[in-house]
Structure formats: structure tokens, C-alpha cells
Specification:
heterodimer, A: 11 strands, B: mainly beta, 5-stranded mixed beta sheet, 4-stranded antiparallel beta sheet, 9 strands, 47% strand
């Protein structure tokens, strides 16, 4: 089946630094990837839609200058949290859609736990 | 996207059948119903999807009445490893619960299975 990986699985950083999270589709090409954020004991919230070769589309209330998304290839999307602050501590999850099947099914990565001190 | 309502939590015992019901009164004609499972600190996993009547796969069944205003996820003979949060999503497009857009997750149902 389709596999999506994320790296790193967890990261701890100091306030004010930037952190990059990678999302890779391992055995399929993904024209569209999605980034979600999940706070403890809460549901997933869609942050942005990442399309290969074009700018990401951000959900209302998500700062595009703070959460930089790059989808430079059909198998990789990156989310960079710039000038991270403790309130950015969360579980970040990506998902990808298989270009080859034409289906809208989304395959989720294992998530990245970000802790900002 | 149609809003969904699920019980916040449920508990059951190993070996029992568990039914989780989701209400979606404003479901549109071309909306599908999709269920995901999420374990702590992991990404969601697709369980099952349906449009009407009954759908069954190797892990679950999905019952959808004629009016489609609700759906019931049925997990046969649950085990401790079925303890997780289960999300019901409604939207257009196969397997998406949201068409061409990202998925809209509700609060989900926290299912706890006891020995």
C-alpha cells in the first residue's frame, strides 16, 4: 500500500529558531499533499494544501509567512516553522494523494511531534 | 462540508461488537461517508467508506440508512488494540470526505476497550 513518511518523528527546539519537517511519499507520486496540526486531546486541523510546482493554499488563520511550505517534487513536501514559539508546539501530520490512481484517498504520515522550549 | 456529531467516548470489552454512530443531518447528495482510526501519536488510518446501505471490509462494516442522515461503524469482536479515536467524515469525492480539499475532522469518538 501507499506509504508516507515524515522526518523527523520528533524535534525539540529553542524559541525563535526554525524547524523543517519533511513529508515523503515513498512508493507513489503525490501532486497534492496536505499539512495538519493536532494539539493534545484535540482533532486534526487542516493547515494548508501543498501542490507540486505551485504555491501552497493556506487555511484561514494560518500564517503563511510563519509556516512555509515547499512542494518541489512529486514525492516531497516540506513544512518549515519559522521563529518557533512554545505555542507552536504540536503534532504535525502530513497526508498525500496518489497521482497515479486518480482517487482522492489520502494517505497519512506518522506525524512529527514539535516541542518548542 | 456536512457537520458530523459523534459520541465523545465509548467503552467496551474484548470480544464484543462495538457500534459507533455518527450523525450528519446536512449530508449532500454527492457526499460520501468515511471513517478513520487514529492511535496516539500516529497519523489517521483509513478504515472504511460508503455512500449508502452497507459496506463491509476485512476490519469493519458501515451501515447507512436510506436517508443517509447518520451512519454506524461496526467493529466485530474488538480487542485491546482497537482502543483509539475514530473519526467520521462526510464530503464529496471518493475516499476524501472533502472532495478536492483537505479533510475536515470532527472531535471523533475515543473508544476504550477493556480486558
Amino acid at each position: 500500500g501507499a506509504v508516507v513518511s515524515q522526518h523527523p518523528s520528533w524535534v525539540i527546539c529553542k524559541s525563535g529558531t526554525s524547524v523543517k519537517i519533511e513529508c515523503r511519499s515513498l512508493d507513489f507520486q503525490a501532486t497534492t499533499m496536505f499539512w495538519y496540526r493536532q494539539f493534545p486531546k484535540q482533532s486534526l486541523m487542516l493547515m494548508a494544501t501543498s501542490n507540486e510546482g505551485s504555491k501552497a493554499t493556506y487555511e484561514q488563520g494560518v500564517e503563511k509567512d510563519k509556516f512555509l511550505i515547499n512542494h518541489a517534487s512529486l514525492t516531497l513536501s516540506t513544512l518549515t516553522v519559522t521563529s518557533a514559539h512554545p505555542e507552536d508546539s504540536s503534532f504535525y501530520i502530513c497526508s498525500a494523494r496518489d497521482r497515479g490512481t486518480g482517487s482522492n484517498e489520502q494517505f497519512f504520515g506518522p506525524g512529527t511531534r514539535l516541542t518548542v522550549l | 462540508l456536512a457537520k458530523t456529531t459523534q459520541p465523545i467516548s465509548m467503552d467496551s470489552y474484548e470480544g464484543q461488537e462495538v457500534n459507533i454512530t455518527c450523525s450528519h443531518n446536512n449530508i449532500a447528495t454527492n457526499d460520501y461517508i468515511t471513517w478513520y482510526q487514529q492511535f496516539p501519536s500516529q497519523g489517521p488510518r483509513f478504515i472504511i467508506q460508503g455512500y449508502k446501505t452497507k459496506v463491509t471490509n476485512e476490519v469493519a462494516s458501515l451501515f447507512i440508512p436510506a436517508d443517509r442522515k447518520s451512519s454506524t461503524l461496526s467493529l466485530p469482536r474488538v480487542s485491546l488494540s482497537d482502543t483509539a479515536v475514530y473519526y467520521c467524515l462526510v464530503g464529496d469525492g471518493a475516499y476524501s470526505g472533502g472532495g478536492a480539499d483537505g479533510l475536515t475532522f470532527g472531535k471523533g469518538t475515543h473508544l476504550i476497550i477493556q480486558p
